[in-house]
Design goal:
By secondary structure, the chain is α/β, with parallel strands linked by helices. It contains ten helices and eight strands.
């Protein structure tokens, strides 16, 4: 029998501090996107009403979302920031209701005050697209809470991030900058065993950068941290799926491609994928887990 390469099934790293029900899951987790915003690129305005947002979060959990990621501020390219009070007004009632329903919730925010309020309301994870750079108090809040923390690769706010998409080698540069974030967070009291890294597809990256990161995703394993990847409906999929006239496919038509990417990401050993279309991705990661289990049995 031919021996399998040592890296055929990459090791999957999990963060400390997760609820036991999530810590024991032996496959790539599915994080469902719940934007309670009027201007997110894909679903802006769909779930501004609290009852509608909560119903959608419950539905995603029923479809197989392991975590529901609630965000009250859009980070789409070109987006301008909302104030802290508005972000909390949008997100916190949804967090409270989903937690009361027994659903693991993460808070998608760059603000320490919002993170603190959500953690007090029962959120189990902080997902910060700035990796703690946008708010100097974020590290303190996370360190005190002992919650897992997603540090995404980030070079600046959405309004001008396209101008920052300049790299010598996008994979090497992203790895170096994420390593610097993990080290800085550790110095500021955030246990590195609780830090999850995210390469930030679409954030200060053009289409070629995104595809290169996906093609070489396993190289990020050198960081030794759990990996979260958010490919869902991203803009770089539009031109790939263009119609006969060359018109990029709109965001809502990119879910099948997202599911394909999610399977590849899971196979690369990622800890979780963040998606809008939960049901298909939940199936995909379970298929990947079954194949990996068969591989481990030889």
């Amino acid at each position: 029998m031919t021996e399998r390469p040592a890296d055929a099934t990459p090791a999957r790293v999990t963060p400390r501090g997760l609820p036991a029900a999530l810590a024991d899951v032996d496959r790539c987790l599915v994080m469902g996107v719940l934007n309670v915003t009027p201007d997110s690129f894909s679903d802006g305005g769909s779930f501004l009403d609290t009852d509608a947002a909560v119903a959608h979060g419950v539905e995603m959990a029923a479809q197989g979302a392991d975590i529901v990621d609630v965000g009250g501020e859009s980070t789409r390219p070109g987006a301008h920031r909302v104030d802290a009070a508005e972000e909390v007004r949008r997100a916190l009632p949804v967090v409270r209701s989903l937690v009361a329903a027994g659903i693991p919730v993460s808070i998608d925010t760059m603000r320490a005050s919002t993170a603190s309020a959500a953690l007090e309301a029962g959120a189990c994870l902080v997902n910060d697209v700035s990796g703690g750079l946008a708010d100097p108090d974020m590290a303190h809040v996370v360190a005190d809470s002992h919650a897992p923390f997603v540090a995404m690769h980030w070079r600046g706010h959405s309004v001008d991030m396209a101008e920052r998409a300049v790299y010598d080698d996008v994979v090497a540069d992203v790895i170096a900058e994420l390593q610097a974030r993990v080290d800085d967070l550790d110095r500021r009291g955030v246990d590195r065993d609780r830090v999850i890294v995210d390469p930030g597809l679409g954030f200060a990256k053009n289409s070629a950068h995104n595809w290169t990161l996906l093609a070489r995703l396993q190289e990020l394993n050198v960081l030794g941290r759990p990996l979260l990847v958010g490919p869902s409906r991203k803009g770089f999929l539009g031109p790939l799926l263009a119609d006969a006239a060359g018109r990029p496919r709109p965001a809502q038509g990119r879910d099948h491609a997202t599911t394909a990417l999610s399977a590849l990401i899971a196979a690369a050993g990622a800890w979780a994928v963040r998606v809008h279309d939960v049901a298909a991705t939940a199936d995909a990661v379970r298929v990947v887990a079954a194949v990996r289990s068969a591989e481990s049995r030889g």
